[in-house]
Amino acid sequence: MKTKKTVLKLNIKPSLIILLLLVLGIIGCSKDDKPTNQAPEAFTLIAVTNGAIGVDVKPTFSWNAAIDPDGDTVSYQLLMDGDSNPTTSIVSNISETNFTIAERLPLTENLFWKVVATDTQGNTSASNTFSFTTRDLRIPATPVTANANFSGRSKHTSVVFNNKMWVIGGIGDTGRLNDVWQSTDGMTWSQVTAEASFSRRQIHTSVVFKNKMWVIGGSDVTGRLNDVWQSTDGVTWTQVTANAPFAKRSSHTSVVFDDKLWVIGGSDRVNGENIKFNDVWQSSDGINWAQVTAEAPFSKRSSHTSVVFDNKIWVIGGFDGNSDRLNDVWQSSDGMTWAQVTAEAPFSKRNLHTTVVFDDKMWVIDGLHDDDDDVWQSSDGINWAPVTSNFSFSDRYAHASVVFNNKMWVIGGHGFGAGNFLNDVWSMD
Question: Which domains does the chain have, with CATH numbers?
């Protein structure tokens, strides 16, 4: 059976077809001719100016607004680092044409910055690139206080704990001390206790560990010590152990590293003879101590400094077993294996100095040495540079130093001259 096909015939006039084609052509042309969304126009930087030197470590950057031809909203990204074509984003997606750095920039650093403008369609345009150099260390002409409430002293310790600076013990005109003081600003100091539970002592060590302040060893009227004390408030002190397994000692160093307490080197006096150590001990609780090494490769020494920097323990200078001052630098990632970074740093041989970590560098501050008062900095322990600022504080040794509120602090110490115990407080930033 055959199926009958139905054919639908449309009776369309040729003129109508021509009109339809013209309309379609116009629509097509309209799509093709639609203008492309354009990127923001070129814009320029204002400040920090190109080639500026001595720029503050928390500068405000500003730039002219980037005009968008299509009226789109424009946002900005600030890029800055040490490369001439900076790629490190400091802030992005901001509408303002200025930005103030919240986290301080490194000192004496050559940096580059530029800004990228982006419209809502994702089109971008970049400014030119400016360079600048941040300022050097700043040491005020006058101390925070020339005469703190605590008596003049040296061979004391200082720590930062509970948002305060603390001064613990030492020796002054009246002899050894065991008083404890605190301050929130370095100017006003309050006495927490006139007589702590531990004996009056000097050249001990103090650290902050597991939310407590710790005092380790030192020297009292009976001789060298190997006791360990702790406190949560500076008033009440608990003796953790009266006799740690390491030999009695003073002029040693202590750090907190790998969630442990560490004791490094120091000296004792036996039968009138000074004995120095280069052993290394560690403890996770202050009670149980393990000897990491009986003899580190660096020479036996006292009155050296130790800090934790770049995830390593560092030992710097001191006084060795041959009665010579030192300016060598050592480092270790485990306390057992030590590498000599330099046998002779460019700063003079010294002991009873201080070392702190600040501005992502190590800083060596004054001490007993042949030169005038000085401060040196290094980011690797090999290359050391003297600070070029004019020094206002007097030459000193056996002082204490801490880092607090984005500043380095120098507290007390011994000036040159008999009985010249200091109680001034200086800040540097």
Answer: 45-134 (2.60.40.10), 157-428 (2.120.10.80)
